[in-house]
Amino acid sequence: MAPAALESRTRDRILQVISERGPITAATLALDLGLTAPAVRRHLENLEDAGLIAAHEVASSVRGRGRPARSFVLSDAGHQGLESDYDHLATEALRFISQESGEGAVRRFAESRVAELEGRYAAELAAAGTGTAARVDALVGALTRDGFAASARPVGEPGSTSPFTGIQLCQGHCPVQHAAREFPQFCDAETDAFSRLLGVHVQRLATLAHGDHVCTTFVPTSTGIPTSTVAGASAAPSTTPTSVTTTPVTTTAVSPTEGSTR
């Protein structure tokens, strides 16, 4: 592979990992990608100069000498670079639908679009069994395949019955982020679909559309999946997305109102 092509491929890999796991440090990126620390720092400097990533300051409760390691997230320009021009066309079409037929028509369109995804995912989650964690893993795989750069991580004490124990489902990229900024019906419909697919009431904590660097959904695991609640049943009530600054989960004592990190 030509040097220029190799450089471009490495740059794209770094952007993708930042999208999925940001905020993330240069050291972690180097370890995950099998690159040298100087090579990663060089790419990060170039990406930061291009305005595609931004440093994310994380307050640390651990005192030590020197400044804490810098972590990086995608900037607005970085997210837009992953967006398709079709997203802008979709937003124009949605504005026309809203003006001609009202907000209800936009909501029905969003529900119809999500229903198609839900129908495809339902069989995969059913095959994963009734355990919430296994179903979340299956959902992560399906979302990632569809371009949402999904990941999941546990929060709270394992085995605890606390309502704050669960899994944070993260989406580092959203194919309809631009449209969802103006039409939150897409976020609401997706949240309701997650509740039906997972069989528990989930809570949306943060969204890319509202300016956060990742979409974060809290999935409780303190109760088992209700056998009467399966994909295709009536939707659980959704929680209106709120803008929450999210940080990486590095401890087990995290409440669902603390974000993580489509």
TrEMBL record:
Lineage, broadest ranks: Bacteria, Bacillati, Actinomycetota, Actinomycetes, Micrococcales
Source organism: Pedococcus bigeumensis
InterPro entries assigned to the protein according to its UniProt record, in alphabetical order: ArsR-like_HTH (IPR011991), Carb_Metab_HTH_regulators (IPR050313), WH-like_DNA-bd_sf (IPR036388), WH_DNA-bd_sf (IPR036390)
Annotated spans, Disordered: 230-262
One matching Pfam family: HTH_20
Identification of the protein by name: Winged helix-turn-helix transcriptional regulator
Matching SUPFAM superfamilies: Winged helix' DNA-binding domain (SSF46785)
